[in-house]
Amino acid sequence: MRYIEPHAHMVSGTTDDYAAMATAGCQAVCEPAFWAGFDRSSARGFYDYFCQLTEHEPRRAARYGLPHYTWLCINPKESEDVRLAEEVLAIIPEFLDRPNVLGIGEIGLNKNTRNEMAVLEKHVDLAAKHNRLILVHTPHLEDKLKGTRLILDLLKSDSRIQPERVIIDHVEEHTISMVLDAGFWAGITLYPESKSTPARAIDMVEACSMERVWLNSACDWGHSDPLAVPKTAREMRRRGHSLEAIDRLIFQNPLRFLSQCPAFAIAGSALDSAAPQTR
User: Fold this and answer.
1) DSSP class of 37
2) Positive or negative torsion for Cα 97, 100, 104, 109
3) pTM for this predicted structure
């Protein structure tokens, strides 16, 4: 089985996680910038973090044969401090041409505040000016529906933004259809206790669509599983989905989206090449 892990916070993981993912068939890992588990006090902290994502982490992944890619931003949780956000946004352009940078993310909303919206708009403007892909974080639990609507409205109001170049992550049963209907990609995040379990994720795919959808583990500091994607693929197989359908969802779909960035390239990555055959 082959798969791409399109959203994993590997700075919070161990080398054993990389080894396990490679053994399970991972072909590449993509790491969005996110909250460090605490609020950083200066833009210099983000500068060092971006160096970690573009220099150190790719070397660590390479030891296990995994290409490592990243996204850059100040995450929504720290966007309430608009002055800090502006300082961080000012340093992002010097990193955008580094060879493993895919685009701007994971941007979005945390509590749907006015300041978060202002910083989200600045991120979208930065992505549009540099013609970069966008990865969007949607809020948790009770804030998710309102936040998703706010995000969609903002993105649709900017004529420079092409929906097919934006992935809106952490969708759930009550938000996936509105994201797909608006022409955006939808990411389903697999957590053991929150966001979506493997069973719920497959229910969503079966009820809505496999088109413009990817699965990710978003493994981070909390209770999460870096092998959530292949474990969900196993559940799909148990339900009777073909190997071709599984390959499309966990490998070809993220490949199709990520390949819109010229920096993204993995060995044998031509769409539909060597796809598993039904047995």
Assistant:
1) S
2) negative
3) 0.94
